[in-house]
Request: fold
Amino acid sequence: MTREPRRLSERASTVLLAILVLIVTGVSYLWKNPPTLPWPPAVAAPQLVPAMVPLVTGEESIAQLFTRAGCVVCHMIPGIPGAEGRVGPKLVLGLNGPRRLADANYHGDAKTLHDYIYESILSPGTYIVPGYPDHVMPRWYGQKLSATALDKIAAYLESLSE
Ligand code: HEC
Reply:
C-alpha cells in the first residue's frame, strides 16, 4: 500500500522528463533550422493577357477607358475610381513626363510629353522608369486601343500633375 503513491510519482516524473526532452529537442531543432519566411513577401505582378482586355474604342467614358484596358490593375491614376495599382508608377505624367525626357538614360524618340506617353503605352520597353520592372507592362496595347482611345488616354494623363 505504501508503494503505490511512489510508483505514481515515478511515472509522473518519467512523463515530465519525456516532455522536457521533446521541448529541448524541438527548440534546438528550430534554433538550428529557423523557418525561412519569405520576407519581404514577394509581390506577384498581376497577369494581364490580351484575352482579358476588350477592344477599347474610345467611345467609353475616361474612367471606363482605363478600367477596360486594365491600366488600373497596375497604376494609381488620380481621378479614376479604383485605379489603385502599385505595380507601375503613379501616372502623373504632367509632372513626371518632362523628368523622363530630361533623364540622361532616356534614349527614346519622343520629344514632347504627348509622344512620350504614346511611346510608353505602345512600346513600354523603350524606357523603363527607374525602380520598376521591365516586361511587366503589356506590349500589346497597340492592338487593343483605338487611335481615339489612345488620344483620350494621353490627353488625360498629360493633364495630371499631382
Ligand atoms: C501589368 C501591369 C501594367 C499594366 C496593366 C499597365 N502598366 Fe503601365 N507600366 C507598368 C510598369 C511596371 C511600368 C514601369 C516600367 C516601364 O517603364 O515600363 C509602367 C509604365 C507606364 C508609363 C510610364 C510612366 C512614367 O511615369 O513615365 C505609362 C505612361 C503607362 N505605364 C501607362 C499605362 C496605361 C495607359 C495602361 C493601360 C492602357 C498601362 N500602363 C497598363 C505596368 C503596367
DSSP finds six helices and no strands in the chain.
